[in-house]
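Collaborator request, handled under Task 6.
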Amino acid sequence: MLLSSALAAMAGCAVPGQGAFHAIIENVKRKVYPALVFVKPIQEQYSSGERKRAEVWGSGVIISPDGYVVTNHHVAEKAIQVHCVLGNKQLVEADVVGLDPETDLALLKLKPRPGGPPLPKPLPCAEFGDSEKVQAGQFVMALGSPFGFERSVSQGIVSNTSRYLGFGGRYQYNLWLQTDAQINPGNSGGPLVDAAGKVIGINTLAVGGAGIGFAVPSDVVKDVVAKLQAAARRRQGGQSGPVKVKRAWTGLQLQALTDLKTMTITNSDSGVLIQSVGKGSPAEEAGIRDGDILLAVNDKKLHGKYVEHLPAIRVALSELPVGSPAAFRVRRGGKEMVFQVTPVLKGKFEGEDFDCRRWNMTVKEITKFSNPRLYFMHRKGGVFIQGVRYPGNANDAGLQVNDIVIKVGKYDIKTIADVKAAGSASPAAPAKDGKSDEASGVPLRLVRAAEGAFVKVHYHFKKDVTEEAGRKSWAAWRARVIERFVDDKITLDAAGIAVGPDAVAVYDNGLEDRFLDRIEVVTADGRRLPARRDRLLVSAPLELLKVSGEGLKPVKFTRPGKLTLKTSLWSAGLLREGDRWRLTYTSLSPSMMFNSRWADNPLYALPGKRPEPGHYDVADTSEMNVLQLLADEAGRAVGIAADELFDAKGTLCTWRGLELLKAPALSHRDLARRRERLRAELLKSIHEVKVKFRQESRSSGELGSFAGREISVYCMALSPVRAVIPRLFNRKLAAKIESIDIRYGPQRRAKCRFLGAYKEFGATMIQLLKGTFPGQTPMAQTDPKRIRPFWAVNPRQKNGKTDVDLTLNRLITKQRGYRNHFHWAPARYIPPGSFVVTMDGKLAGIQMTQRVEDEEQRQLARGTDRLGRFSGANRPRLFAIGEIRDALAHPAAAFDPKIKVLPKRMAKRRHWFGVEYIGMNRDLAEQMKVQKQTKDGTIGFLVSAVYAGSPAEKMGLAVGDILLEMRVEGQPYPVEFKSQLAGRGGGEEFGSDDAETGPLRRMWKKRGNFLTKLLDAIGAGKPVRITYYDADAKGPAKTVTKNFTVQQAPEDFDSAARWKNQKLGLTVKDLTYEVRKALNLSAKAPGVVVARVEPGSPANIARIWANEIITRCDGKPVTSALKLHDFIAAAHKAGKDKVRLTVLRLGRTRFADLSIKDYNPDDDEGLEED
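Structure tokens returned to the collaborator:
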């Protein structure tokens, strides 16, 4: 049946055409759209450790002409104000009349805004349908305001009419309608309607990405609304706040007799299983036990065979009269009993919240219904911590979310009221000078200093109009990021501290001047003052800004007294949270280095979140406590710190205020001059390098996108003739390098040769063949010092020339890396391939890849093959000059012997074990009874062929054996042959199996399989152990481990000698071992393989096809590609117009006359590849 026909039938219409479908939708919109309400409550939220207000949104539907609206509990809970938008776009307000978290429903009552127009009378309202009559497969529509947008409608069907969602302890009292009509965020509380426009449910839940949602059935909604309205009418005078649905509580937890979730089957025809009985509950006091089967309540029989029956039973129990005994008939063992249970009123589902601002945390009452785990831990009830603000007093004290508060001082805590009482009674801890901020115990002197000295700093961006569009360099990417800031008119914000009447100290963010439009300083009283960069401190990660105008209140520093392991300090920071800025205060306790002689030089750690090492230079630090004003125990300002650690004597960085103002600094103008001078010097030693790779045959494809390409990298000259490239050319790339040129300009190049690639780090050394470099960069004698600024030099192309970007950076910490080595990490991101240069222009480090032992094997062991990239999965890091100086000065001993440039055919040579295989699977493992050996078929290569003369044949492997793993000597773990890595291992995907004509599908297997790549990575001459399952062993089959030495393979199809003539359009290759085996050709059978035929060429006209075998030329046996070339060359020289070729195809021979009139020896290729 057509969809439109089906929908029309559902709507009670005749079966019309497509138009009926649209008519149904328009009818529903006409009926329900006017009753839709966009609900925007302002909620109080406590989870962050302080009370916050947030605007949320949802949907609702008007259900009565006087303005009652149904929505979800999770939309309206904790709302202090509710705004609503009606269907006519009128903005009104609403009171929260009632809430029912058990069914996630809420009842609102619309009211006009103060001073606004009155509500329309009567209000349009939707009509409820009967959800009991809804059937699976029925057409429905979900209406609402998704994501806060304009009203929308989505369509679908009812997938299930009785979906149970009560497994997690919530939603115990109702079943759900499941639908595939899209329910997006913001649709919550909107109506689910049928084809007649009646509300059959309230949209509530959605499973992200699954395309299914859930709605509370309309019958449940009507029942809850009626109870809430009745409770509101009964409310006593003076009471306020939303009413709740009152339910009776007996303390029973129920389980279905046939519980398919836990596969628990109870042998009973009726009743419901009592899963547990609450401690101290009415049911326990009456004598009911867990494991009893509840058969009836007050003679009303119960049926709880499946979970879908449980909500109805729970509703029946919840509606029992509170305080009146009810007869509970149960079966215990084989005996029936009756117990008199007196239900009590069910307590509140969720406890009260409270913001303990003094202690920087929020707490909440424990209830048995919303916090069952905490209630189990502390059955006396009480209060738990639901949020801890960071930084703050609770966090400093080690308090965590879900900790249960038992006592505050001498006050026992059982309720929120107890917490409030304890908070008002507990005195604040005084500072040592007797003067304190009443709210926090912070020295008042520090509070006043911080309030005056801290300022907000806004960096306004501009576009770099000189940056070339479309480039893929790091500099171009960064420029595009800045452009987004400019387009969106967003500033980079930071905290600053006034240290003079016209000076502000800020954290050194390293932002380049080319992106900086202006700087603006905003004081605590709102004054906006222009500023510019003035000085960069050398011994502290700080920059001083020069401020114009009046209004700064500079901090006055005093000299700190002697700092010992008993001396604490105070710190103050300015932190942005959203659109608000607040001052934070923390007491800093001293510490000392482990196993150190620094007992007289204590360390202090700054609080709060710090910028990660290597962060981008446009990272917003305003939401981190980066800059801290330091004070002594009396609150007197003594310094400024921006580093994560500082020591009393200032050896790690300068922090004392009086010293900072006199500390060594570089003026901004001087830095600009230094940058330009250094750029000119570096461009004499940094050059673009053009590396060209050989063109691969289509059958090989080893280099991927690099084949035949010329790529650009950059080098730095370290001697008159040698230069280092901070990029790794791995074994496969280096082997196929065709040429290396230094590009001095568009028309000027200098030839270089490849010296080698380093085995410890991702760099390559090259050497000029003639002449010398215009300049060289000397190497520094020591590593850069911590915190001291240096230049990060990133080479690139700009306006058709080699250029360098110089950005300032600092070393801030050490990070653990490969072999447990701790290496320096910079404050800001340095692109891979960049050089680190001291302020006076000496090479102090290189940002490049950390190489690891046997990295090719490791990649293969992880099931990935990234051999076509510069380096493996290893991450780049900064190599300080102390780590690499010797390798750069004396490179030969530091090179990786595996990485070298090879002749063309040698570069294609592989290593071999000599087998073909397919991957195991579960079915094969079961048939061969090798589930244990192959881990149910997840590992293992099943041998399908063994090549003559191969290591595998010499070891005795046979078809049917299963390769399991290979272990390389010195490797800590073996490489498992995972079945998924076997691949198809077949030939070309194109071609046919036609016996007579057309390109022929390749019959032999490609040699570039996983096993071959692994052996290539290990290298010739290396001893390895291979473990395999010997299916043909004498006696019972068994697992065998044998040793062998990796050997270079004979030439295969990819590396075979070839001859190509462009004019003839023909490429042929020598027959190799795998081709002969696939085509059943003996070792002495003549022939060459047709590797390629160019369209429209003489070979194509002669109907010669790829993958056929040419066995003879004018009756003479063709034994090699060179031999065929010689025959054709001789025939052409003798004046012949054509030669007759004998062609073998799928065991049949035919003749083909190849025209050689256009043959030209100058077009021959491939003969010189050795």
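The cover message to the collaborator said: "The mean pLDDT is 86. Residues 218-234 form the longest helix (17 residues). Please let us know whether this matches your experimental observations."
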